[in-house]
Amino acid sequence: GHTTSTVDEFLATLKAQPTPTLFKEPLTNVTVQVEDGHLAFVRADFTVVIDGQVRSHGVDYFTLVKDGEAWKILNGSYTSHPGPAAK
To answer: What is the pLDDT of residue 51?
Structure first.
């Protein structure tokens, strides 16, 4: 079965944890799919900006598993390309 939660609800849950996950680059176009209430698949676009210049961009993928009341990252992967994304 599927349970659904909005991205905002999911992120609020992550931020409420004792050791919140911090991201150094802004994430956009975040999608979260929760399976059976204990697995979450997260996809997000990212852009790395250093000294005002876009250095790289790509897509992050995370799989999280619920351990008690906390979500823990099970695995993660990403694609990364140098320079700004094409318009």
So the answer is: 80
